C-alpha cells in the first residue's frame, strides 16, 4: 500500500525545508501539514502543489509503488522526472517574469504617488 503522506514527509525532510515554511508555500498551516503526513491518500490537486513546492514527482512515485517498475517498462522514469523538472523550471521562470513586471509596476506607482504628494504639498502652500 502506498502511504503518500509518509513520502511527502520524507521528501520534505530531505529538502531540509521547515514545516512552517512548507505550510506557507502550500497556503495552509502547520497542523494541516502534519495531517497531510498522516494521510495514505491525497487529492491530486494538492499532490501537484506539494510536488511543485518540493520539486518531486509524487505521481511517478505512486505509479511505481502501485504497479512496480516491471509493469512500467514502457515508462522511462528518468525522462518523466526530466519533463517534470522542466515544467517546474518553466513555472519558476514565469513567476519570476511576473514578479519582475510587478516590481516595475510598483516603481511606476511609487513615482506617481510621489508626484501627487508633490502637488498636494504645493497646494498646501
CATH architecture group name of the largest domain: Orthogonal Bundle
| Alpha plus pi helix count | 6
pLDDT averaged over residues:
86
Q: Sketch the topology as an H/E string, one letter per element.
A: HHHHHH
- The CATH topology label of the largest domain is 434 Repressor (Amino-terminal Domain)
How much of the sequence is in beta strands? under 5%
Secondary structure layout:
Elements lengths: L3 H11 L4 H7 L4 H9 L5 H11 L3 H14 L5 H48 L1
Can you describe this structure?
By secondary structure, the protein is an all-alpha fold. 8% of the residues are buried. The model has no long low-confidence stretch (mean pLDDT 86). The chain is 80% helix and 0% strand. It folds into two domains: 1-72, 434 Repressor (Amino-terminal Domain) (Orthogonal Bundle), CATH 1.10.260; 76-125. Helix 1 (4-14) packs across helix 3 and helix 2 (19-25) packs across helix 3.
Amino acid at each position: 500500500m502506498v502511504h503518500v503522506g509518509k513520502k511527502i514527509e520524507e521528501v520534505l525532510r530531505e529538502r531540509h525545508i521547515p514545516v512552517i515554511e512548507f505550510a506557507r508555500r502550500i497556503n495552509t498551516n502547520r497542523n494541516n501539514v502534519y495531517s497531510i503526513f498522516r494521510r495514505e491518500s491525497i487529492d491530486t490537486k494538492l499532490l501537484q502543489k506539494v510536488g511543485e513546492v518540493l520539486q518531486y514527482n509524487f505521481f511517478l512515485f505512486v505509479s511505481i509503488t502501485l504497479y512496480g517498475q516491471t509493469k512500467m517498462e514502457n515508462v522511462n522514469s528518468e525522462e518523466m522526472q526530466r519533463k517534470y523538472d522542466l515544467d517546474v523550471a518553466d513555472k519558476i521562470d514565469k513567476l519570476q517574469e511576473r514578479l519582475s513586471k510587478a516590481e516595475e509596476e510598483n516603481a511606476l506607482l511609487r513615482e506617481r504617488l510621489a508626484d501627487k504628494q508633490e502637488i498636494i504639498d504645493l497646494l498646501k502652500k
